[in-house]
Structures are given as C-alpha cells and as structure tokens.
Amino acid sequence: MRDVTAGSESVLELLPLVFADPGEARARAEHVLGAGPSPLHASVAHQVLGIWQRDFGDLRIALRHLRRARDLAARADSADREADVLATLGVALVHAGRTRQGLASFERGVARGSGHTRARVLYRRAYVWWVLGRHREALEDVRRALPVLRQVADDIWTARALTLRATVHLAVGAVDRAVADFTAAERLWDTTGQEHDKADAVESRGLAAFRSGDIPAALRLLDEAEERYAKLGTPTYNLSIRRCEVLMAAGLAPEALAEADAAIALLDRMGGQSTRKAELLLAASWAARSAGDAHTAIARAAVAVRLFAAQRRTWWETHARLVLLEARVAAGRRSGRMVADAAAVAERLTSFGSPAAPQASLLAGRIALALGWTADAERHLAVAARSRHGGPPPARMTGWAAQALRARAAGSRRGVLEACRRGLDVLDDHRMTLGAPELRAHATAQGAELAALAQEVSLAQGSPRRLLEWSERWRATVLSAPPTRPPDDPVLLSGLTAYREIAARAEAARMEGRPVPALEREKRRLEREIRSRTRHMGGAATDAGDRFDVRRLLDRLGDARLVELAVVDGRVHVLLCGQGRVRRFAGGSLAEAVAEAEHVQAGLRRLAHPGAEARLPLVEAAGRRLQELLLAGAVPHLGSGQVVIVPPGTLHRVPWALLPALRERVLSVSPSAGSWLRARETAPPPDGRPVLVRGPGLATGGAEVPELADRYGTATVLEGDAAQVPRVLAELDGAGLAHLAAHGTFRADSPLFSALRMADGPLIVHDFERLARSPYRIILSSCDTARLAAVGADELLGVVTALLPLGTAGVVASSAPVNDAAVVPLMLALHKGLDAGLSLAEALRDARAALPGDAVHQATGWAFAAFGAA
C-alpha cells in the first residue's frame, strides 16, 4: 500500500474512494489512523470510516467516527474541512432519526463552508431534504449547488447532484425531467472511476424505467445494479425498496414482502439506518396489503408511521398513513373518522404532488359508500376519477375504478360497464408491455375489481350473454395472445443447463436418502437467476389478442355445449352455450365447491393405491355433490353431443369425468371459451409426425411406449440417454402428436418450474416456452401434469397453460396422483381411438369405458382430462 499520509492531497483522495471502492477506502483510512496522523489527516480518515459505517455498517459507530472527525477538523482550524464533516454528520444524524440535530449540523456546515465546499454541503442537504420528503427545499439547494460544481469542473459531485435532482423529479411525477438528468449524470459517470456511484446510476435508471411504465426494463436494470453492488460488497437496502415497488406493480406482492422483510432483518442485525428501516417497513406494509395480508400490513405500517413521525418526515409519514388506512379497511373496519382521515391524507398528498393522491381519494369514497354517505362518496370519488385520463397505468386504473363506483352509486349500469371497459383497456396495454407469461398473469389482479363490477351489473341486467362476455373479458387473458419467445440469451441457456444438472443431482441424492443442502441452495439460486432473466423480456404483441366473440363461439360449437362457470359475489352461475344462445342457471357456493373438490382429490390419491376400494362410494358421492353445486339445473339441457367445461381458476382441479352427468360424455376442459375457440381453429402441422418419450424412474418403465412405437411405426422414440432435454425439445418442436411418459412434478410455490423428469434432469415450463411451435396434440401420462396454480384475477400457470398459446390444440393430462400400472391400459386404449381418427376427448371417453371396473382403474380414468379442442 502506498503512503497515504504523505500529504493532504493524497489523504483527501480517500473521500472519493469510499464510493469507488468502499472496502479499499476503509482499509486505507484505518492505515492512516495507525500512523499517528495530524488532526487534519485524522479528520479525513475518521470521516471515511464514518461514511463506510453509515452506508454499509453500524450507524452508531458511524456517528462516533463523524463526531471525532468534526472535532479534529476544528482542531486543524480548517473551516472547509469542518464544513465538509458537518455535512456528512448531518446526513448520518438524519438517517439515525435525529432530524433536528441533523439539520442543525447542516446549518453550521453551510455557514462554515465557502465556494466549492459550500456547494458540496448544499448538495448533501438537498439529499437530506429528499429523504425527509421536502422536495421543494431539495430542488432549491441543488439549484444553488450545481452552477458552482460545474464552474470548478467537479464531475463527480455534479453527477451526484443531477442524479439527486432526477430522483426528486421522479418523486413528484416529472418523469421526462428525471430521464434528462439521469442521462446527463450517466455521461459524467462514464468519465470517472466511481463504481458505487455508477451502480447507483443504473439503479436510478431502473426506477425511471419503472415510472415510465417499462417493468421488464426496470427489473433488468435493478438486477444489473445488484450485480454491481455485489462486486463492491455493499448492502442494497435502497435497491430492495425500489425492487419491492416494481414487484408489486408486476403483481408479485408476496415476493416483494419477502424481500422487504429480509432487508429489515439484515438492517436490524447491522444496526443500520433508521430512515431506511422506516422505508422498508412502508414497502413491507404495502406488499402485505397487496398480498391480502391485512394484519401484517397494519402492523408494519403502524411502526412505519411512528418512525417517520419521529424523524419529521411528513411526506413519508403521509404515504404510510395511506397504507395503514387501506389495510384497516381490508380488515373490515369502517367509520366516519376513517373517511375524514383518508380525505386528509388525500389533501396532504395532493399538496406534495404525490401520484398516490387519487388512491387516497378513492379510499375515502369507498369507505363513504360502505357507510351509505352517498354525497361524501361522490365528492371524493369525483376527485379520484380525474386521474383516469393521464399519468401512469396505475393512476389511470384508480381513476376508472372511481368512475365505475360513481356510476354504480348513481344507478347507471351503462356508466359502470363503460368505466370497467376503459379501465381494463388500460391494463391490457400495460400487460402487453410484459413479455414473461408469469408477469402478465400476475398483473391481471389489478383489474379484478373492475371485472367483478362489470359481472355484477351484467347479472343484474339479466343478460347471460353479457355476463359471458365479461367473464371472458378477464379470464385466461395470458392465453389470448402469443407469448414473447425467450431471447437466445446465453446466460439464460447456461442457467437452464446448470439448473437441470443440479436438480438431477439433488434428486438422485434424495432417492439415496442423503439430501445435500448445498445442492438445494444452488438449485434455488439458479431458479432465482432463471426467473430474473425471463422477467427481463419486454412484450412483443401490439394488442391484447383477439377479442372474444359470442356469436363466433356459438357458430363453432355446432351440436356441442360449452359450460362456463362464472363466479359473482361468491356464487357460481352456470352459463350454458349452445343451440345459438346462452342460458344462465344458478349454481351453489364457490367455497363449498372448492372444499368438495379438495375432498375428491384426497379420495383419488387414496384410490391410486390398491386396498382403498372402500373409498370409492365416498368419492362418487362427492362427485354427485359437486354436480349439484356446479351444474345444477343445466344438466337436463346438456344435449347429447360433446361438453366443454370452462371452470374458474379456483376449480381447475375438479375431476369433471367423475360427475355423473359427464361420465359417459365426450368431455373437454378449457381455461376460457376464447382459448377453446383458438384451439378449435388451430390447424395441425402438415407432416403430423408422432414423438414418443420415455423418461427414467417410472414404476412400469413407461410400458406403453414400446407398444405405441409398434403401432405408429414411423414415430421418433426417445428413451434412455436419448431422452435428454435438448433432444426432446428439438423433436417436440412442430410435432403432430407427442406422448411423454415421464414423472411430473408440480411446483405450487413456483408453477413455471413444474417439470417432467428426463434423462438429464427436469424439463420445466420455461423450456417449453422456447419452442417455436409446441406439438399439435400432447399426451402427458404421469401424475399431476394438469395441476395449475391460480394467480392474478383468474389466470392459471402450469404445463398445460404454457403449451396452449404455443400451438398446441389439445392436451391429455392428469390433475391427481395416478397408479402407474393402471395408466398403461388407459394410454393404449386412448391411442387406439386416436389411430381410428377420434379427437382426444372422444378417445379418452372410449378409453375410460374400456378400463376394468375396479376402483384403481376407475380413479385413474377420472384423474385424466382432455384440454383444448383437438
């Protein structure tokens, strides 16, 4: 290490180094103090250590170093040195929640400093004003500092000032001004070696992308910033706060809550900044409220309010009060006092220029409506509704929600439907900027209220056709447009390969009874990396896909009947489509149906094993109860042709073939009527080549595959070492028929990592998304391959829903564990029907009928369903 005590200039170089290479700066500062420095040099070293502890360590230690640095600067009789330390101390005091002391330190710093030093002090006070939410004061101090910093060609501090001004602009919604300042700052950063500041610039650009409505770009930039910070070994509390905001906008509130809570725990262990803790608590409360956990949201928000109040951060405190009020309303609380409190919050947010002000007015209107205070509700909702014509998508969605509630209160059904349509159009545009199906699915949750309002009005109007249109308007929208194909990203491809290898090793270790925690940790790390890379994809579609057309559906049904189950206010409504019309029948309680479906699933799991025959009558009785709840009066009108069932996401695991009225029917299931229509109109590939795949570890060894190979003759057969994921994907692409005999694993926690086991590891949903065109027909003969996760408003994620938008018109899969031996005769009979020219649904009906009558075979037949229309 060179001698950094040789002169004042070399010691002063430590100050910019703490943001370029924090670890090296800390080491050099400690070396200086160990060499018996002068008061001036010791002041600089203590200031560097104080900055390091303030930003990356223990704030209490930071304050001790900075007070020592201040006293040493006074002993050195250097006014500018003292002013500089006073500014650094002021920032630390504010972050410690000692706002009055911090601002007093700045007052002394501004008075002691002159020229260039004073400009740097003003910049840091501007930063503190931003932390406190006092944006006018922040902009004023930056205005005073920038000309001086530019005049002396101080590129580093000029870039910092521009970055700060851009951040303040974002806080008040001036996105264009922010982008201009970020761009100018980044040009300056490129001329410096300030790696930490460069990482901060990337993070800031991520925030700007988010404010501009580009969530994939925001996630990509925040991930890049995190990688840069990791190389420097610095904590990323502010990054966590920003990522939470982006994740919530993408509908990933549980993930945001986990990130915020983890950051809070780390901050507490390190004794870090009180200001950051308050901000993280606010992010956590917001995420908990969005995730439907009102009690956690109340607890986090209440602490955040107290901290912000003690820190004199009114802007932040007001935002925390908004979340606290929303969480209390979600927990069922309503009172006149809460109307007044929400209105006061809205007024204060408006005075701050906060984009959240319409949200507070909407809340006040909601509470007033619930209390029957129509005049008050109208006043607050009218204010909130002004945001519907401008601003980012969330603000416009808030405005249209307010307008819909106004129209409902005024008795205008037409007005409700128009507001719902306009609001969902905004969300459609927003969804289509997202490339990852996962993000598109989760984002739909933001439109759930508008869709529900439109359904309520349609039901009240007594129009089954309109209720069908609105049920389709927000069901399985992810399947309504082609997905964005993942880019040929070498990092993503290598991550997928590494994931397969690690997952295969972990599975082998489990099978041998020796779980290896290190493998599981690496597997989770690779999952996070793959998930992050796929979320970076922007949307390629220019619209939200084909609009659902009832007339086209009725024309294409012919003699078939389509039964769509719409849920309004917790009750099932059966919409029977066929014979040129749509009829409605009242069903039962959704909650009862979901509970009954779970009982059936438990029964099927038991029946998959010999010796559980006594359960069969109980399962059949549950099937009868499900029929009463879900089909009710529609049963006599089902006709004699094919039946297509379109259930809501919460009922996707119902084994429909178990219902008495459907057992001997040609029966298929679809996530939406629109999805069935698209499958019905999908043309098969010209060559129609069959592909047969046999994965490892099946109890029967995939015994049906050799017989099927003899049946088809020209089929491509992949088994043993040939059944590796790259080869399997290559053969599946564009195939006419694919039969995959492979163990299936459903991941409820992360459905896009649901998998089929191949020779080299799992074939996951993310792999299927790389197909240019998935097989026209796919048969998945193993357990749980039809299990899906319900997310968003009414979306489903899993293997089946990944295949349908990629060109697959029909899938046969199981929604429950099945008996491997009983699957073999079912599959052979199914292919016999296909060979005779039947559809998947027709062939599956005949295959069930050909099975032996024992409980195991019956349960196996009920567990499988045909999806789509091929």
From TrEMBL:
Residues 621-868 form the CHAT domain. This is CHAT domain-containing protein.
